[in-house]
Amino acid sequence: MNPETKFTEELKRKAAYAAVKHVKDGFVVGLGSGSTAAYAIEALGERTKHENLRLLAVPTSYQAFLLAVKWGIAVTTLDEHPVIDVTIDGADQIDPKLNLIKGMGAALAREKIVASVSKQNVIIADESKKVAVLGENNHPVPVEVLPFAIAAVKRKIEAFGGRAFLREGKGKLGPVITDNGNAVIDVVFGVIRNAAELEKKLKMIPGVVETGLFIGLANTAYIGTPSKVEKL
Ligand code: 5RP
């Protein structure tokens, strides 16, 4: 690991370890996906072992499920536990109101469903994820799409000003296929002035399963910085 990556990983880890204090014995916990959420799952695994916590976790991806198994955290389903006490998840961009862009790990649909039924949503990230306005630096908004509708959805999104790119896999030829069997289109809008409105417009397109705009869902964020963990 190069020194810069190692440094960023440390910031993510610090944020994750600070966030898991929201979890209490007996909680149903939503497990986010991504490299930062992975540290939270590790931290919960350690707490489970050392404090004999009785947790039940709802993983938001196959990645999160495998990590829960690895760290000895019991898993459950939304069918059995449709209300979650707290979810801890990462983000790709975080604005000052805690609106988010998520989904660079292609787990956005399950992440949003889990967030929507969580009493508390705690976001963890290193400081590079903080932005003044979502979409800054031409960061794309991931959109999960039914494979049947890829071309149709791309045309509709481009008609209202987004530049849409079908996400390609790494380590496998062809498009990324989500845990739900769908594709992901990454859409560059530039700076997004009204994310709630854009979210509604995207969701109205037939074939769109979910978008990576998480508006009004997060309650708290822990941001790892070199000197401290900032709580927002
Ligand atoms: C996955 C996500 C992740 O939480 C997001 O991409 C952040 O990932 P990382 O912590 O690896 O930067 O939304 O769908």
Commentary on this structure:
By secondary structure, the protein is of the alpha/beta class. It has two domains: 3-129 and 216-226, Rossmann fold (3-Layer(aba) Sandwich), CATH 3.40.50.1360; 136-211, Alpha-Beta Plaits (2-Layer Sandwich). It is 31% helix and 24% strand. The chain has six helices and 13 strands. It has helices at 3-19, 35-51, 62-70, 108-116, 150-159, 195-203, and strands at 28-31, 56-59, 84-89, 93-94, 100-101, 118-126, 141-145, 163-166, 183-188, 208-211, 213-214, 220-224, 229-231. The strands form three sheets. The chain has a six-stranded mixed beta sheet. Helix 1 packs across helix 2 (35-51). It is globular. The mean pLDDT is 97. Residues 32-37, 89-92, 102-108, 111 line the site of ribulose-5-phosphate.
Topology record:
Blueprint: H1 3-19, E1 28-31, H2 35-51, E2 56-59, H3 62-70, E3 84-89, E4 93-94, E5 100-101, H4 108-116, E6 118-126, E7 141-145, H5 150-159, E8 163-166, E9 183-188, H6 195-203, E10 208-211, E11 213-214, E12 220-224, E13 229-231
Parallel strand pairs: 1-2, 1-3, 3-6, 6-12
Antiparallel strand pairs: 4-5, 5-11, 7-9, 7-10, 8-9, 12-13
Helix pairs in contact: 1-2, 2-3
The structure holds ribulose-5-phosphate.
